[in-house]
Specification:
alpha/beta; 40% helix; globular; binds S-adenosylmethionine; S-adenosyl-L-methionine; O-methyltransferase; transferase; SAM_O-MeTrfase; Cation-dep_OMT
């Protein structure tokens, strides 16, 4: 079905196809968002009218390209990546995709980089897609670096249903469960989560709107 939607709804996309191939050739793990999910990110950033986007978890730059495409020429996407080798691949990919002028890749552990971003805030949209154990901390930073109206998107919040296992001791599951607790109880956000079935399995996105 993902292939059908990609072929019949999205159409061919040389830049994203090339980015996926370059990432695979460089040996990066196949854990980027799918093509339809990437288009969802492009549409969402466009709907929000985002001029300033923060992404946590760059990998090879696939979702960064999708998000940056929605930006106006003077817009910026700051994307955080711990692995310098992945960041190098992403740099080449965003440049070849023609959005390099809008994409700022910061290499380092996200929890070290996030406190340096106050001067770049507020962000209109934040996409959290790095190590899931730190999802609650990343969500707190998204609030800190956002404003009323900021949209926060979090990937992999279902993980084939593993997140519903309240007895789990998997740090990634615990981190996402903790993030959901914060989303549910923080009076400054309205949030939901949507389950997805796609070529890369059964998973889902959380969506939060900062309201106050
Ligand atoms: N958003 C990417 C996409 O869809 O194209 C996929 C990101 S991948 C799921 C997660 C990325 O987060 C990996 O590249 C990994 O190296 C990075 N990462 C993991 N822990 C991190 C950390 N503590 N700080 C920054 N990046 C981290």
């Amino acid at each position: 079905m993902d292939d059908y939607l990609t072929d019949n709804l999205l159409g061919s996309d040389d830049a994203l196809g090339g980015a996926a191939r370059a990432a695979a050739d460089a040996g990066l793990p196949d854990i980027a968002v799918s093509a339809p999910q990437g288009r969802f990110l492009t549409l969402l950033a466009g709907m929000v009218g985002a001029r300033s986007i923060l992404e946590v978890g760059t990998l090879g730059g696939y979702s960064a390209i999708c998000l940056a495409r929605a930006l106006p020429p003077d817009g910026t996407l700051i994307t955080l990546e711990a692995d310098p080798r992945f960041a190098d691949v992403a740099r080449g990919n965003v440049d070849r995709a023609g959005v390099g002028d809008r994409v700022d890749i910061r290499v380092g552990t996200a929890l070290d980089t996030l406190p340096t971003l106050h001067d770049d805030a507020p962000f209109d949209l934040v996409f959290l897609d790095a190590d899931k154990a730190n999802n609650a901390a990343y969500f707190r930073w998204a609030l800190e670096l956002g404003r009323p109206g900021t949209v926060i998107v979090v990937d992999n919040v279902v993980r084939s249903g593993a997140i519903a296992d309240t007895a789990s001791d998997d740090p990634g599951v615990r981190g996402t469960q903790h993030m959901f607790e914060l989303m549910a109880t923080d009076p400054r956000v309205d949030a939901t989560a949507l389950q997805t079935v796609a070529g890369k399995g059964y998973d889902g996105f959380a969506l939060a709107l900062v309201t106050g």
